[in-house]
Amino acid sequence: MRILVLGAGAREHAIILALREENTPHEIFAAPGNAGIAHDAVVVALDANDPAAVTNYANDENIDLVVIGPEAPLVAGVADALRERGIPVFGPGKAAAQLEGSKSFAKRVMDAAGVPTGRAVNARTLDEVAAALDEFGAPFVVKADGLAAGKGVIVTDDRAAALAHAGQYLADAPVLVEEHLAGPEVSLFFLCDGDHVLPLSPAQDYKRLRDGDEGPNTGGMGAYSPLPWLLEHFGGEDAFVDAVTREIAEPVIHQLDAEGTPFIGLLYAGLILTEQGVKVIEFNARFGDPETQVVLPRLVDPLSELLLAAASGHLEDFPKPAFAEATAVTVVLASQGYPEKPITGRVLTGLDAASTVEGVHIAHAATGRTDEGLVATGGRVLNVVALGTTFAESTERAYEALAKIGLEGGQYRTDIAARVIED
Ligand code: AMP
Ligand code: GLY
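Above: the input record for the complex with glycine. Below: its predicted structure, written as tokens.
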């Protein structure tokens, strides 16, 4: 197949690496890509957020499948334009992508579909915010109602900080004040073709910048998959995944279909396992980053066939995708100053040495080539991904590889997957 992947991060690199792992070779194109992706795909200078440019390119180059990585092209209507031209695309149209783009849209759909989520109030003024904070009590949760790359959310015991956070966004749009949900978090992905869904294997993301879940929220600093502790909570991964498929993913997808906005692409359910059951904290309309980097290397079935089946409405012909037992861990290397003000342009060293560690590969998030060599071009720079037979092994491999990588001021968490390392 000739496959075009839109996006420039480690998630897109992970998708491309999974496509390359298949027995059937593909011709893979990436726009705009990054220096690491350029090694594994043909990088094309194309504005991934421009519906006409992407559609013309895909048409002229006889692309068989377009895979949209990030949210921005979805919200810009790139999938709609491709579908209008009859080009198979994995990614929802603008209307269905509001499931991610608008938290109040997501709440409404969940309500209509009877899907469990935290109570929330849409507040337009600081007085309304204050009233909602007092209604729900601490810890306080305030969310900007739009795309904020994981940074629009505050969870705090400090009422004044919650109010100040709301104040930053209120001038532009209402904010959501939400009931705090307590429990372990799970990211679960579903391939969707508009009316059928197929679940992937769950992962856990580390959203906070520093060890021990301290510091600000980020796009995600690391992840692991599978989740061994689902055994004691749910009797195992299958029981958990089946329950979430039935009670959350299918009702939401059927609701969107009934509303005339079918969801074709990746439904990302951000879940909290509360004492009252599994509840949704958020939906995203795309693969998670960095969770994809640990989920796809464990996928046994060919990714391209699943994505094409979803894009063309044939998922019902496929069984639930199979996953290897291997443990996968990824640790993000971020630039100094991330997430507030990342310092970019610094040289990266040691990647070749890091890749020689057994079971390790590197997914590039924000890298470029200059006269000085490979440099960091953004906040999250790269992901070290390590596979093993136990979490102790894959974690040790990941950190051994990271120790070989040089980036002045680079920061990473040292406790990724620590909670699941067997004694
Ligand atoms: P979101 O962008 O909605 O995924 O929120 C980012 C992070 O904030 C989540 O991964 C959670 O760790 C936390 N969070 C969001 N909403 C809640 C909530 N209602 N209760 C507890 N934690 C939350
Ligand atoms: N890892 C969180 C996200 O992709 O939104």
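Notes for the reader.
DSSP finds 14 helices and 22 strands in the chain.
The CA atoms of residues 231 and 237 lie 7 Å apart.
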